[in-house]
Amino acid sequence: MGLGKVCGRGVLRAKTWIANRYTAKTASSFDQVMEELNKFGMETKGLGFSTDVTKESLAQQGGYGFALKDPQHDEAWVIFTDQVHKEIPSFEMRAAVPKWFPLIRTWFNAVGLCKLPWTDVRHPEAANTKNPSQNWPTLEYYLKYFNSTM
């Protein structure tokens, strides 16, 4: 199996494949080789990190580590929205989060937009809406921007 096919199965498998091949040729310690590969082959739970650069945000790195589905930090910024901004006060609003937030995040990724103005920079008018955590005033800006490109 070639390197491309191995890498397609995930960063952890690629690192293990490389380490096994290297140690077989050099009689080096598998653990030492893995230690070196771990310096740049980032993965959590066997899956490679997303294209977001996390080196500047310890909170984002932590979010990758405790995320439930893959090395993504969605849960971290939802928790931040809930606990810091206090924008998800009711059980009903929290129940909608597992559906709502990933859908919007997926849309951002699909159209090549950044989630930063939506989640981290709160629109002042969001507080006056039915569900401030969804930040509809900012989403409306995104929609206007996207529609203007069509």
TL;DR?
57% of the residues lie in helices and 3% in strands. It has 150 residues and is an all-alpha fold.
Q: How would you describe this protein?
A:
With about 150 residues, this protein is an all-alpha fold. The chain has 2 domains: about 1-40, no CATH class; about 75-150, no CATH class. It has 8 helices and 2 strands, in the order H-H-H-E-E-H-H-H-H-H. The protein has helices at about 5, 10-25, 30-35, 60-65, 75-85, 90-110, 115-120, 135-150, and strands spanning about 45, 45-50. Strand 1 (about 45) and strand 2 (about 45-50) form a beta hairpin. The model has no long low-confidence stretch (mean pLDDT about 80).
In total, how many domains does the architecture comprise? 2
Mind telling me the C-alpha Rg?
20 Å
Summarize the amount of helix as a percent range. Answer: 55-70%
| Major sheet details | 2 strands, antiparallel
Core attributes:
elongated, mainly alpha, 3% strand
List the helices and strands and how they pair.
Elements: H1 3-7, H2 11-26, H3 30-37, E1 43-44, E2 47-48, H4 58-66, H5 74-83, H6 91-111, H7 116-119, H8 136-148
Helix pairs in contact: 2-3, 4-5
